[in-house]
Amino acid sequence: MIPRAFEYFDPPTLxxxxxxxxxxxxxxxxxxxxxxLLPMMKLRMVSPAVxxxxxxxxxxxxxxxxxxxxxxxxxxxxxxxxxxxxIRNTLPALADAARVVGDxxxxxxxxxxxxxxxxxxxxxxxxxxxxxxxxxxxxGPAGTRSIVAExxxxxxxxxxxxxxxxxxxxxxxxxxxxxxxxxLKLSRRGTDFAIVGVATALTEGEGGRCxxxxxxxxxxxxxxxxxxxxxxxxxxxxxDPERLREAGEAAKRNLDPPSDVQxxxxxxxxxxxxxxxRAVAAAWERSQSDVSGLGN
Length: 296
Ligand SMILES: Cc1cc2nc3c(=O)[nH]c(=O)nc-3n(C[C@H](O)[C@H](O)[C@H](O)COP(=O)(O)OP(=O)(O)OC[C@H]3O[C@@H](n4cnc5c(N)ncnc54)[C@H](O)[C@@H]3O)c2cc1C
Hints:
Layout lengths: L6 E3 L4 H11 L3 E4 L5 H6 L7 E4 L9 E3 L3 E5 L4 H6 L1 H6 L1 H8 L4 H6 L2 H7 L6 H7 L3 E6 L2 E6 H4 E3 L2 E2 L6 E8 L5 E8 L9 E9 L5 E9 L6 E2 L1 H8 L5 H12 L12 H23 L9
Parallel strand pairs: 1-3, 2-3
Antiparallel strand pairs: 4-5, 5-10, 6-7, 6-10, 8-9, 11-12, 12-13, 13-14
This protein binds flavin-adenine dinucleotide (FAD).
């Protein structure tokens, strides 16, 4: 399939990119890695008159960490995240997700900012960003604003971004020594989107307790779904296999996932419980070397 004709710009600065978006309004689309935009243009699901490519804009692909926060440029590729020692050591759930996005071609070109802005309901990063309490920085004609990930995703393929805004950076708090995270995904083949994916971030407390828990699912709703009932159960006592099982069962309640060619709704509900259990166990075992077997 061939996209409709469009005008192509690759501005060398962020200011020029914003100006182009302002000038062309809803006729313009930003391009990052092109791994979602180009297939949609080829299928003519979107036909922008103007494409504004971000590849020449400097400093959008860096990963920086200080004592408080990890700052990830929006143009950082999945491959760069997957292979970053900072990400692997500080935000293991994000490294887990980057490793399982699509295939090597997609991971070499696709970006975290593009994935977040695309907001597919079954993408891997959105759940991770919500679980890790990320904030997205967006630059537009009125300046810069910061949006917490939980408010960013509005619907499938819809975010709270204005058409003139560009995501420049994603910032994620550096977890404390007692915090750990994991992301686990079920897909039919290695390159497929998630049937179900679960991101967890846990804080270990005294006596085998979990002081804080964030559990977020992808693939089961229009946006990342937070399993709040499961989170409360995880925090209510020592984290043992029975508590994990209860949390998995709680995560299944009130889910209303879609049926599609990959899996029907009931299957998604059933595996959600299993994947919540396993993802929580994976994060917990990362923080506690003496506990094993929780995920069985
Ligand atoms: C074969 C295949 C398999 C895939 N498998 C997976 C998978 O398993 N899991 C998964 O999560 N994803 C998967 N993807 C999608 C992939 O992760 C894409 O990289 C991602 O969705 C889009 O990133 P991109 O950088 O390519 O963005 P683009 O395709 O360039 O842009 C996507 C959208 O975001 C907008 N946009 C891009 N950058 C910005 C920005 N900085 N600010 C504001 N808006 C912006 C664009 O205007 C466009 O609307 C797959 C894609 C393919 C082709």
